[in-house]
Amino acid sequence: MLHQFRAILFYYRPLTLWSFITTIILLIFSPEIIPALLTKFFLIAIFSLMISDRGIRKKLGFYKMVGISNFKLLMALYLIDCILTCSFLLLIKGFI
């Protein structure tokens, strides 16, 4: 289980910058939590379509080695992203 979580975090690390940029853009246009989570879900849905491509799947095959399915990877990435987005938005709303 710990190896799976490390693999997910290792995979999320490069996506962190893009997630933070998306959160900043969402904060500028609509600083509400529900639209931010729906936007992140839409982006995860697009990412799932990218994972279904055979060429990209070969590049991302390392998480398969520790027994993580595509669904488990996507849900874990979404949950991690939701936690970070909600905490950042609540922190910023506290100062506004």
Characterise the protein shown here.
- The model has no long low-confidence stretch (mean pLDDT 80).
- Helix 1 crosses helix 5 (70-95).
- This protein is 86% helix and 0% strand.
- The radius of gyration is 14 Å and the shape is elongated.
- With 96 residues, the chain is mainly α.
Biggest sheet overview: none
Instruction: Bin the strand percentage.
Output: under 5%
**What is the alpha-carbon Rg in Å?**
14 Å
- Derived from helix and strand composition plus strand pairing, the structural class reads mainly alpha
Q: Return the domain count.
A: 1
Low-confidence stretches: none
Number of distinct helices: 5
N-C termini distance: 40 Å
Fraction of residues in helix: over 70%
The rough form would be described as elongated
The protein's oligomeric status is single chain
Report the order of strands and helices: HHHHH
**pLDDT averaged residue by residue:** 80
Number of strands: 0
